């Protein structure tokens, strides 16, 4: 399997003639390693991609930024999904100096205040109705920038930078003034990503990321399906050559 060169095997055919058999490159099973665009983290449990944007934006601008990349501010369906998000090293993705207070991310929840007597009373709501399985956070810590006139606060998830705390899943929920600027966490469905890191729309043909540039698949629900492989002969008149990792049947001859 996967031979780069043509094997010539001689055997006797009818009439004592020499028959030559050629074994060309054989298609091999391909493992699709990427289901998210560059900079996004994939979680198999929800077939979703996640990305933190470290540039500070208010809640409403963060909503629009997530929508522009076909996503929304993140909500969570199960504790395992939240633990996956907490375990990631988001700060390492962009080379920027991040203050500790910027490790709080806007997420897709809002806290509706129903009573302002001796203590604030209210309840969490999902900002954008999606899955009915979304869980709601516990009682929040109230932010310092709250206004007495605001009846709706926006949800922030605080992640801890230190590895020990991060891997134990420790975190906090804040209800903050929606016009404060903060980093934010976007979530989108997994998608098809081609060999050149382009996002592929549903139903289109593409070559998935992997080690076979001669594979053509159809994008279905973020997965490559109905794949067809092309087989290439080695370049003629060239003993040593290198295959192009991103172009099908393209070779560079290395002969002197």
From TrEMBL:
Residues 45-187 form the C-type lectin domain. It comes from the Eukaryota. This is IDD protein. One of its GO terms (cellular component) is membrane. InterPro entries: C-type_lectin-like, C-type_lectin-like/link_sf, CTDL_fold, IDD, VWF_dom. SUPFAM superfamilies: C-type lectin-like (SSF56436). The lineage of its organism: Eukaryota, Metazoa, Chordata, Craniata, Vertebrata.
């Amino acid at each position: 399997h996967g031979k780069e060169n043509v094997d010539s095997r001689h055997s006797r055919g009818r009439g004592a003639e020499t028959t030559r058999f050629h074994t060309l490159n054989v298609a091999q099973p391909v493992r699709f390693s990427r289901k998210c665009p560059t900079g996004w983290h994939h979680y198999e449990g929800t077939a979703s991609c996640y990305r933190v944007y470290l540039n500070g934006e208010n809640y409403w601008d963060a909503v629009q930024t997530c929508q522009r990349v076909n996503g929304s501010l993140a909500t969570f369906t199960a504790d395992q999904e939240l633990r996956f998000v907490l375990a990631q090293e988001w700060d390492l993705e962009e080379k920027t100096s991040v203050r500790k207070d910027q490790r709080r991310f806007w997420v897709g929840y809002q806290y509706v205040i129903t009573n302002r007597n001796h203590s604030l009373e209210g309840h969490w709501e999902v900002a954008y109705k999606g899955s009915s399985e979304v869980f709601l956070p516990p009682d929040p810590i109230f932010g310092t920038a709250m206004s007495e006139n605001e009846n709706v606060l926006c949800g922030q998830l605080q992640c801890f930078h230190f590895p020990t705390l991060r891997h134990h899943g420790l975190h906090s929920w804040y209800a903050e003034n929606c016009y404060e600027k903060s980093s934010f966490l976007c979530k989108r469905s997994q998608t098809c990503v081609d060999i050149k890191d382009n996002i592929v729309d549903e139903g289109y043909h593409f070559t998935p990321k992997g080690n076979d540039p001669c594979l053509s698949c159809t994008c279905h629900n973020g997965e490559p399906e109905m794949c067809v492989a092309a087989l290439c002969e080695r370049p003629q008149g060239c003993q040593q050559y290198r295959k192009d990792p991103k172009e099908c049947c393209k070779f560079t001859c290395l002969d002197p």
